[in-house]
Amino acid sequence: MIDLHSHILYETDDGSSSLEESIEMAKEAFEAGFTTICCTPHYLEPQYVHTREENLEKLNILQNKLEQRNIDIKLELGNEIFITRNIEELIDAKKASMLGESEYILIELPMFQRLTSAINLISDLPYSKIILAHPERYEYVQDNISYLDEFIDMGILLQGNYESILGKYGRKAEKTLKKLLKQHKVDLLSTDTHRKNSTYARFLEIEKKLKKLVKEDYYKDLTYNLPKDILRNI
Ligand SMILES: [Fe+2]
């Protein structure tokens, strides 16, 4: 499996708090069957503003540690970029990163308050490859799932969080993700994990639940095929 949304990179945001924790998380991911993880620290000014260069330095340190310990996980760099007016500027200035070597960007919306300009801000971007992080977690989506129609019509990909299926973000997020999966509206699933002993460690439970909900082909698309195509910039 390929995980395109993970806060595994240490000391960059509210995710992994140390190099040691990042190694533990990667070990859990490897044991769960992941082969590639895109490290996607939050990019949100002024709280989380590490540059691409700073993140790459940490990624290389972590990658070397994984090699020394025979943890066969390939790391890529990206960001979970909170929606803002200057995304293009952040990318051009090498502050925020696209996913791996691709031209896909992962965008996060406000959790509680619907941003009326969100669709305009996204359509004004000079990029066509946009992924919306965890639509099932936004309260206004939980209340009205058709909010996503405009995003889907624009070709924006929807990335669900694995642990929504276990109720980690509440009953409404769980129900919303199930509904979206039934309608085949979710394009890919990722962990969005922040800690050890979290999503990677619970993966067997997640897989069991998901496989009851979706057919094998769709499961493979969500967990592997589409994430792989994204990293290949297809
Ligand atoms: Fe995230």
Summarize the structure.
With 234 residues, the protein is α/β, with parallel strands linked by helices.
What is the assembly state of the chains in this entry? single chain
What general form does the structure show?
globular
Total number of beta strands: 9
Q: Helix count, per DSSP? A: 9
Name of the CATH class? Alpha Beta
CATH superfamily: Metal-dependent hydrolases
Describe the protein.
The chain has 234 residues and is α/β, with parallel strands linked by helices. It has one domain (2-231): Metal-dependent hydrolases (TIM Barrel). Helix content is 39%, strand content 15%. It contains nine helices and nine strands. It has helices at 19-32, 52-68, 87-92, 118-123, 139-143, 149-153, 171-182, 203-213, 216-231; strands at residues 2-6, 36-39, 42-43, 74-77, 80-82, 105-108, 130-133, 157-161, 188-190. Strands 3-5-6-7-8-9 form a six-stranded parallel beta sheet. Strand 6 (105-108), helix 4 and strand 7 (130-133) form a beta-alpha-beta unit. The chain is globular. Fe (ii) ion is lined by residues 5, 7, 80, 133, 192.
Secondary structure elements and pairings:
Layout: E1 2-6, H1 19-32, E2 36-39, E3 42-43, H2 52-68, E4 74-77, E5 80-82, H3 87-92, E6 105-108, H4 118-123, E7 130-133, H5 139-143, H6 149-153, E8 157-161, H7 171-182, E9 188-190, H8 203-213, H9 216-231
The structure holds fe (ii) ion (FE2).
